[in-house]
Structure to design on (417 residues):
């Protein structure tokens, strides 16, 4: 069994943002030399997500609006977590809706994807450095 | 390490539907001859889910109603994604709540499940052909 | 390839509760003797979650409040699932928001975590015995 591990950093200028990281993950698959296996891609931070969906800017706008409705940022005093001095309780909720991680099949040396699947990093408390982990196992 | 891959197709007659696919996944485990490992089951499409829950029709009705409340289909103009000519922005949201994939342990050659766990395909933009991927690795 | 499997039981005195199970999972990783691989941790029950987030009591209070807003327990007659004699339809929904499982990288014999990542069992229909499964594969 082969295994491979790589972290990469992001530092996004806005509180909420979506970044397509498919190319970085594909590069990891290539470097790993795994042809049959699984790739785990996860945020190492608890106010961010990794998820798979469409690379369409209108949709990303809709996600941001919808998540803000499900878990509003303000007023920040509505959350007990923010009594600790944080203002990011809403980000911990948004991240649960969108998920922490994806597991993707690797087949014939490639991410085994349907036609529209793309991997995104979802930031809900940006303006600071954060990491994504790619772990690959297989043969 | 053994690996196994299979796709299967669904074409559901309604926009929203839930289909129990446990038997198909069990058959994949048998075909794979993996006795200890993991099975990844994911939708290859971004407006559908694979998830694990109860095979109870009342619950599925409740899921459909609840998801419609969290992310309403209409009016379709409320979503910027639908400016592209699509009408399925809500389906991209419903899929995030229910999840893209499940990872299931394989132990002693079987899906290692609790008493009520069943695997479902959740469709949120049906009336077209879509695929589910089963990828198994182990020994 | 090595594989490892362990179940452990919980019996929580309240309907909704969050329990940090990171230590138990770490102990499984140690017992497995896997140094490079993946750990799957999942609820074996369909009204409970396993998820990764912060060990902060204010946040857990916020999660409980927020999930109750997204999928209220009462009135129980609003759910068709409860026509079966159950009163836990809401728990099946809360569990979908928070997720069934996590997959965690194992690197150098340890859970490969960011600074704040902790694994939680999320109970949404407690006051009964339930199981969590830890499955580890790797080398």
């Amino acid at each position: 069994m082969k295994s491979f591990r790589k972290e990469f950093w992001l530092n996004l200028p806005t509180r909420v943002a979506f970044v397509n990281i498919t190319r970085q993950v594909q590069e990891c698959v290539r470097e790993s030399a795994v042809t049959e296996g699984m790739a785990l891609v996860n945020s190492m931070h608890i106010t961010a997500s990794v998820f798979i969906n469409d690379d369409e800017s209108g949709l990303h706008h809709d996600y941001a609006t919808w998540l803000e409705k499900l878990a509003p940022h303000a007023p920040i005093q509505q959350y007990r977590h923010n009594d600790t001095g944080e203002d990011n309780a809403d980000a911990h909720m948004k991240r649960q809706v969108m998920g922490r991680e994806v597991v993707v099949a690797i087949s014939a040396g490639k991410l085994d994807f349907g036609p529209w699947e793309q991997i995104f990093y979802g930031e809900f408390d940006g303006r600071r450095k954060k990491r994504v982990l790619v772990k690959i196992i297989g043969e």
